[in-house]
Amino acid sequence: MLKGIAASSGVAIGKVYKLEAPKVVISEEVVGTEEERLTEFRNALAKTVSDIEKVKERASANLSPEELAIFDAHLMMANDPEFASQVEDMIKSGQSTAKAAKDVSDMMVMMFESMDDAYFKERAADIKDVSFRLLCNILGLTIPDLTAIDEEVVLVANDLTPSDTAQLNKKYTLGFVTEIGGRTSHSAIMARSLEIPAVVGTAGIMTEAKAGDIIIMDALEGKVILNPTEEEIQKYTEKKYQFLAEKEALKVLKDAKSETTDGHEVELAGNIGGPKDVEGVLNNGGEGVGLFRTEFLYMNSESDFPTEEEQFKAYKAVLEGMGGKKVVVRTLDIGGDKKLNYFTFPEEMNPFLGYRAIRFCLDRKDVFRTQLRALLRASVYGKLCIMFPMIATVNEFKEAKGVFEEEKAKLIEEGVAVSDHIEVGMMVEIPAAAVLADEFAKYADFFSIGTNDLIQYSMAADRMSEKVSYLYQPLNPSLLRLIKMTIDGAHKYGKWAGMCGEMAGDAMAAPVLLGLGLDEFSMSATSILNTRKIIRKLSYKDMQDLAKKALALDCEEDVAELVKETLK
Ligand code: PEP
Ligand code: MG
C-alpha cells in the first residue's frame, strides 16, 4: 500500500495504464545486413507517419484547426525525403539503424536551434518529437497515448500536464495517481473539475506500479493498493458504491438555499477552467462562478497569445451558459509553474515569487488590454465580475483598474456595447494584501481570497512540494486571522468577500469561514452540494462563537479539534 494525498474524491479499481515516456537507449552495434537495416528504417518511418496520422485523427474531435496544425508540421518532417535519404546514406556507410536516425535528427535539431527566427527554433521541437517517435518504432518501444485508450484504466504518471488532462477521456479514465504534486497543484484542480478521482503526491508509485497491474485507489483517504487481495477488492468496491450513493443523495439539495438554521445566507459558487466546466457547476447546484481561471485559454493556445476574438467567444459562452448568474473572471495568472509554449519567462531563482500574474500583465499591457477588451465586449451577455490575481500593493490595483477604465472608455467611444455593472475586484493571496485589506476595500468592489497561494506565502512553503506539505494548514490561526482581516476590511466599506482557494470547499473549514462572515464560497463543483449540506445544519450565531474561539487558539490541531467537537 502507498500513501498519497486525496486530491479529487472517489474510489476506483482497475488496470494500471502507465503514462511514462519509454527510455531510448541507442546501441552502436550493427545488427543485420545493409538491406535488412534499410528495410527496418523504412518500415519504422512508415509506421511513424501512420502513427502521427492516427493521433491527429483522434485528437481532431477535441482540438481546433490551429491546434491540429502541429501534427501537419510533424507529418511534413516525417515525410521529408531529404531526411530519409541522409539516414539511408548513413546506414549504407555501416551505421546501425537507430544510430543513423539519431545522428541525422540531432544534426537537424542543432541546425534549427541555432537559427534566429522564432518559427524555425520551434521546428526544432517538432524534429525532436518526430525523431523520438521514429526511434521508439525502430527499437520496438511503445509510446503511451492517452487518446488511444479504449478500455477502463487508472492512469499512473509522474504528473499530468494541462495538455494531458485536456486529452483525458472520462469514459475510460477511472482515476489517476501521480508521484508528485499536492491538493492545489493544477492536475489536482483539473481532476476535480472533470470529476475524476485522483491521488497525488504518491511517492514510489512510478517504481512500484507496472502496466496492467490491478490497482485500488481510495481518493477519499489518499491510499493506493497495488495487486490487492480478493477481500480488498470487495471492501473497496463497497466503499465505491457507498460514495456514489452518498453523492447521488446530495442531489436533493441542488436547488436548496445555502442558508444556516437561523437564516443567514451565503453564496456557493464553482471554480472553472473554461466554458466546458459550466455544465458541472450548474449540475452541482452552483449559484455562480466564483473563479474562472483564464490561464487555461492561454496554456492551450499553441503558437501565440489567444486573440481578442477567441477570448471573447469563451467569455461569452460562460456568461451565457450561466444564464445571468454571477461570473467572476480572473485576468491572466501566468508564470510560476504555469508556462506558455510561445513565451519564454525569464529564468528566476523563485518563479513563484517572480514575474507572474498581474506583475506580468502590468508589464505586458498589450496582452492585458486584449484580455480586458474581450471581457468588456462579453460583459453584456451576463453578470460579469473581473478580478486581478496576485495584487500586492494598492498602486498595482489602481494601475490595473486604470487600464480597465481606459479600455472601457475606448470601446464606448468605438460604439461597442459594454455593461455598466461590471464589478472590479481582486484576489487576496499575498499576506501584504490581507493585512491592508481595509485600505484596498476603498478601491476594490470585492475580494476573493486565494488560499492556495495565501497559505504558501504565509507559511513560506511551496505548494508543489510534498516534503513541506505538512505546512499547508488552512486551519492555522495565523491564516484565520488573515482571512478575518480581509473579510472585515471588505465589510467596513460595504464590499463582499469571497474565497476561491481550495479551502472554500473543505468541510472542516466551512464552519469557521461561515463564522468569520465569508459571503461567497467558490470551489470545485463536486464540493458544492456537500458544503450546502453542512451549512444548512449550522447556526450562524454558534459559528460566530466558534470562529472567535478558533482565532484565540495557537495551532491548527486545536482548531480542528474545536471544529470536530462543534460538529458532533
Ligand atoms: C489560489 O491561489 O488560492 C487560487 C485560487 O489561485 P490558483 O490556485 O489558480 O493559484
Ligand atoms: Mg493563486
Strand order of the largest sheet: 1-8-7-3-4-5-6-2
Low-confidence stretches: none
Q: Number of helix segments? A: 23
Main sheet characteristics: 8 strands, mixed
Beta-strand content bin: 5-15%
Overall spatial form: globular
State the secondary-structure class: alpha/beta
What small molecules are bound in this structure? phosphoenolpyruvate, magnesium ion
Tally of extended strands? 16
Oligomer: single chain
Mean pLDDT: 93
Helix-residue proportion: 40-55%
Radius of gyration, CA atoms, in whole angstroms: 26 Å
Q: How far from one another are the termini?
A: 31 Å
Structure in words:
It is a single chain. With 568 residues, this protein is of the alpha/beta class. 48% of the residues lie in helices and 14% in strands. The chain contains 23 helices and 16 strands. The chain has helices at residues 34-59, 65-78, 81-92, 97-113, 118-139, 162-167, 186-194, 205-208, 230-249, 278-283, 295-299, 308-321, 357-363, 365-378, 394-413, 431-435, 437-440, 451-459, 477-492, 510-516, 528-537, 540-551, 556-567; strands spanning 2-3, 5-8, 11-19, 153-157, 173-178, 198-200, 214-218, 223-226, 267-272, 288-293, 326-330, 383-388, 423-428, 446-449, 496-499, 520-523. An 8-stranded mixed β-sheet has the order 1-8-7-3-4-5-6-2. An 8-stranded parallel barrel has the order 9-10-11-12-13-14-15-16, surrounded by 4 helices. The chain starts with a strand and ends with a helix. The model has no long low-confidence stretch (mean pLDDT 93). The site of phosphoenolpyruvate has 11 residues, from strand 10 and helix 18.
